[in-house]
TrEMBL record:
Protein name: CYTH domain-containing protein
CYTH domain ranges (all copies): 2-150
């Protein structure tokens, strides 16, 4: 069964921008998800590609994940007709010490939030910590895209932005 092992971090400063290898605009909307299901079903448009993604609704760094390429026209129709709130972001790919960090710079109702994601082969895998890598938020479900769609960053209180525990 495919799994995703992903660590999430807030970003400090703009030093990472100098090392961006490529970027793409992404739109993603959720077709189904918690609390009625034990997974989220997402459609994502990334540049000129589109994907259907099914991910376990469990918090933490390890989750079951299935992803399939779908026709771009189908994805755009699903976003327009079936998805709830859409998460908008620009994903920047930054290589650092042979690891690729995916840095999501959110826009729309999540503007101001920048999160780095790093996929690893094992939970215990060592990884570099560049100076711009801030506080880890891997276990804080409010930073998951599904939750950002339902409760955008622009609506967070100061306490939510600074809290170290899940809401």
């Amino acid at each position: 069964m495919p799994i995703e092992i992903e660590r999430k971090f807030l970003i400090t400063g703009d030093a990472w921008r100098a090392d961006v290898a490529r970027s793409e605009t992404m739109l993603q909307g959720y077709l189904a998800g918690p609390p009625a299901a034990r997974c989220s079903v997402r459609v994502r448009v990334a540049g000129e590609s589109a994907f259907l993604n099914i991910k376990a609704a469990a918090p933490g760094v390890v989750r079951d994940e299935f992803e399939y390429a779908i026709p771009l026209a189908d994805a755009r129709a699903m976003l327009a007709k079936l998805a709830g709130d859409v998460v908008e972001k620009r994903r920047h790919h930054v290589e650092f010490d042979s690891h690729v960090f995916e840095i999501d710079e959110f826009s729309g109702s999540n503007a101001g939030l920048i999160v780095a994601e790093l996929e690893l082969d094992t939970v215990e895998a060592a990884f570099p910590r560049p100076a711009w890598l801030g506080r880890e938020v891997s276990n804080l479900s409010r930073y998951y895209n599904l939750n950002l769609a339902m409760h955008p960053y622009s609506q967070w209180s100061v306490a939510e932005r600074n809290a170290d525990d899940a809401p």
